[in-house]
Design brief:
The structure is a homodimer.
Chain A lengths: L1 H11 L3 E5 L8 H11 L3 H19 L5 E4 L2 H4 L2 H17 L3 E8 L3 H11 L3 E3 L2 E3 L6 E4 L5 H14 L2 E7 L6 H4 L2 E2 L2 E2 H14 L10 E5 L4 H10 L5 E3 L9 H4 L10 E5 L1 H4 L15 H17 L3
Parallel strand pairs in A: 1-2, 1-12, 2-3, 3-6, 6-7, 7-10, 10-11, 11-12
Antiparallel strand pairs in A: 4-5, 8-9
Helix pairs in contact in A: 2-3, 3-5, 3-13, 6-7
């Protein structure tokens, strides 16, 4: 799947992933009203609203970008109906040819980690049947529990040709509280990055990149530069561009010389573009067109540095 | 909710939580067969099997222990039907008077963390309605992203009188890979423990304990001793007893002098007791009775050290 992701990045010349984080407040009024009219102001109604919104976004951007990254929390908050919308969104995106990165940030150990791995990336055994559940192409994973948490994912990735992105240095202001603390003179995130590189060697794709990627926030470019060197064969998923303050100029160090090695995420900057002054002329009813224009602008912006 | 948890621990004289981690292989054949006959060898069939199994366990132990800890991964692996079984299990346990600790180990930032918090512990706004989704009493949370990930949970906890358990030192063999690394001469888990104590001060219950608990594995008693001192007002959730190798004698340092301050988890040691030689006489058809006896034995075992 890392090979397919890189192939699509090359074909579209767009190292861009659109974050499908459909907060209800991003969903235009008419879509919410319609969903609530059909299903009431219920979890089902909310799930229907975000699903219809996602569909509009995906239809508008699916020929421009290689991948989407649904943030499961935005679905999980609506309980079981929300999880059904998550699954439906994944299926629809894959049908549209998009690579799907499930931003689940799961992390546990042994058989529990295995359960997450099979549930999100693999197949679960039920009697004589081998069934897939959420079936994303990639999942994000938390490293705090060490190798015991990662190995079950590696096994599933190798078997299913899928991948993970391990949190290394996150984009948020307080990410340094633990991640930046110095251990033998070097910050924790570097040690995690080294481990990601090691895990990655056990699961290499055919094009020189590993199934094991890393998450490194756009908001810390100096650290991104160091991590790029520590993890040369790792695809870096970069959150924090746009709304969180990361700029294209800062992102050059995240890429390798082959123009690959990083994929930059934008969520509300694209899906809620119609709410920005810059794209206000589209109006809420053309939220998809606004998202498309924002995606085109982001792709153009990233071309300036590659 | 921390006050209610402590009250139930006192009433039952049992600082015990039963982990509801229903792997299909723990579910006796006849229950699996019945579920598959009704719903096929499908995700729905698997979800029905684990729900029926859980019901049997909960009925057998609900008057003995204060709390249960469903491990969401074991449900999530069966997709949307699995999540429905998770929700049904939570509702049933609460109806039976049990405190429910959702072992979800979620961890993200800002609005995403908030979505997890409202989805698992609070209420989500849908139009004019304020709705609850999974509605556990406690949730486990990963600290790797720092305060940005924890604060949204604190806000929901304060509002809803619910709680979290933050991963500090996990019970698995590789937990030391990052958690034990020395920062200014002290291991990372101590720094996380100090932060847990600080976060906890912002959300104190009435009985001297905080809504913010910590996870510290039974398999590292020396570290448990240190962490007990660093976090005097923190309830420690202790995994790793029994099947993972932790013994009662090792657990004394996790408790405060008031006999509170820790709650010890056992999962397969109780729910799959019928598979152990010690409880084999019950037979798979009486898996609930075997679980009850195992819970009684664990409670007696822990009395030797308190």
């Amino acid at each position: 799947m890392i090979d397919r992701l890189n192939q699509r990045i090359r074909e579209l010349d767009a190292p861009v992933v659109v974050g499908l984080d459909p907060m209800l407040k991003y969903v235009p009024e008419p879509i919410q009203k319609q969903a609530f009219a059909e299903q009431g102001e219920t979890l089902e109604g909310a799930a229907e609203a975000i699903w219809q919104f996602n569909k509009g976004i995906v239809d508008a951007i699916c020929d421009l970008v290689p991948a989407v990254k649904p943030q499961v929390a935005m679905y999980e908050q609506f309980g079981v109906p929300g999880m059904a919308a998550y699954q439906k969104t994944i299926g629809y995106c894959k049908q549209k040819g998009l690579v799907v990165i499930g931003d689940v940030k799961r992390g546990d150990i042994g058989s529990t980690s295995e359960a997450y791995a099979v549930g999100h990336l693999g197949h679960v055994q039920v009697g004589s049947q081998s069934l897939s559940a959420f079936d994303e192409d990639f999942a994000t994973v938390n490293p705090y529990l060490g190798s015991d948490g990662i190995r079950p994912f590696l096994e599933v990735c190798q078997k299913e040709k899928k991948g993970i992105f391990v949190l290394v240095k996150t984009s948020n202001p307080s990410s340094g509280e633990f991640q930046d603390r110095l251990i033998d003179g070097r910050p924790l995130y570097e040690w995690v990055g080294e481990q990601v590189a090691r895990w990655g060697q056990e699961a290499m794709g055919e094009g020189g990149y590993s199934y094991v990627g890393a998450v490194v926030g756009a908001t810390y470019p100096e650290m991104g530069k160091v991590l790029r060197k520590i993890m040369p064969k790792t695809c870096i998923l970069v959150p924090g561009y746009g709304a969180q303050g990361g700029k294209a100029a800062d992102l050059a160090p995240y890429f390798n010389e082959d123009g690959l090695g990083a994929i930059v995420n934008s969520s509300r900057g694209i899906i809620a573009a119609y709410k920005q002054e810059k794209y206000a002329q589209f109006g809420p009813e053309h939220f998809g067109d606004a998202a498309r224009q924002a995606a085109l602008d982001m792709i153009a912006d990233l071309k300036t540095i590659r």
